Amino acid sequence: MLFSPVKRHQSGTMPESWQSLKDGAWFLEQEACRLSLWWPRFYGYYLVKVGPLASAFDCSAARVQRQWYIGQSGQVQCQGTELPLQGRSVDVLVMSHNLEYSTDPHQLMREAERVLVDGGHLVLTGFNPLSLMHLCGFWRKTPPFDGHFYHPLRIKDWLALLGFEVIADERLLFGPLPGRNPQWLEALGENYAHFLGGLYVLVARKRSIPLQLTPALGRRRQRAVVPVTGTVTGRVARQGGPKAHRE
């Protein structure tokens, strides 16, 4: 067994938007600001954002040809934790707080590994349970704070087992009150208590598997990110392009 079982008492409620989170606009601003430093470093054919929170990120600075969004509201819809995408078809996969509300986070991580190309990047953001915000009781076991929050070190272990190389582990929010902590406290935490950050941003690269080299025959065919037959229950929409319907 690749992963040890995750004990879950109940499934949390995935927020439909940042506005449904307490101080959600502030969380979005902080995560988006930090990720804005990363988008220009990504390149390839396709960037896919999974879930309603990830859909709010402006990834226009990424050097990719097209962006897709998987979630509710008429976009590609998933059945459970399966991503309706072909294997090795995505260059950048972005998931924001998805693991916290997933009924099977291990399967979701396996799906991320499956759909990413070798050398592709996985971006994960979430809440850190070992933080002042958590320890001081900011979270309550009521929606949308009824998810299961995993420590970033545990997630990094999962990534290592799946063959990912973690290239960034960044933390934000070092005080107990989002947006209302004194600057000196934030600076103190960032410099001396990095592990106590209330938000984490993980960037991982899928390691390439060496293959036998063969001569290129003609021009390389462009990969196509399309839903896998039988896994789509809604309609497909491509950001910046026309919508295609599929049953």
From TrEMBL:
Q: Which domain of life is it from?
A: Bacteria
Molecular function (GO) terms for this protein are: S-adenosylmethionine-dependent methyltransferase activity
Stored InterPro entries: Methyltransf_11, SAM-dependent_MTases_sf
Gene3D superfamilies annotated for this entry? Vaccinia Virus protein VP39
Can you give the residue ranges of the Methyltransferase type domain? 57-124
Task: Quote the protein name from its UniProt record.
Answer: Methyltransferase type 11 domain-containing protein
UniProt organism field: Gallaecimonas xiamenensis 3-C-1
